[in-house]
Amino acid sequence: MPNGNIIVTDEGATRVITLRRPGKKNAITQDMYREMSRAIDTAQNNPDIRCMIMTGGSGVFTAGDDIDDFLKADASRPETLSDGAKFLYSLALNVKPIIAAVDGASIGIGTVMLFHCDYVLASNAATFSAPYINLGLVPVGAASLLMPSTMGYQRAFAMLVMGRSFTAAEAHAAGFVNTVVSPGHTEVEARKVAREICRLPADAVATSRKLLRAPPEELTRRIDQESHLFGERLKSDEAIAAFNAFANRKKR
Fold first, then answer.
1. What pLDDT, in 10s, does the model give residues 159-175?
2. Cα 154 to chain center, whole Å?
3. Chain-centre distance of CA 83, in angstroms?
4. Cβ neighbours, 10 Å, residue 75
5. Could you tell me whether strands 127-129 and 105-107 are parallel, antiparallel, or unpaired per DSSP bridges?
6. End-to-end distance of the chain based on CA atoms, in angstroms?
7. How far is CA 79 from the centre of its chain?
8. How much is the pLDDT for 74?
């Protein structure tokens, strides 16, 4: 069913979660985080859903957080767990395989969420970045744990501390993209992978996946640690200057 800027459809045993906000390059609002969390959470105890696909459609995955919406939410309830943090918890606690289909830019949380996925397809037009450093901020979503363990410390340093972007070929070489395909073909290929997974014994898939992944409690501890430091950084002179510069650019 369509849910504003998030479309959730069940296709056989596969739940497809589509970001659909093309006018804003799929920039994610708090409402969108809530809808994605709901789609993931309601699949957990549903035996009819064997795996999930996350996609942004053709041309873009997501530009990351909608900065205006993020700042408004942060100012209105600074002491509560944000919808973005709840979404990260949903990813960390999820027990169903998630396939990501990335066609175009994947920025910030868009790249971070891929490290919680189990299989990532990217078009050769895809790019990946997590430039929190450019806003005077720190990584989120257990990125500081997952990225070094997936692609090695040096590559993680380049992305998280230096703010560098990766091409699809570089992401494939780094190990967080499984397959690179032509633009416009990521969803088709993701559905093929989903059908392959859904044909496998469900309990064996769940147990094997659990053995391969970091324990959920380890992920949530790191999410909490990063969130605390992220909140502190939001009040720093560096972050305030960066956000002011961003606001001034928008006014021009």
1. 999 999 999 999 999 99
2. 21
3. 13
4. 8
5. parallel
6. 38
7. 23
8. 67
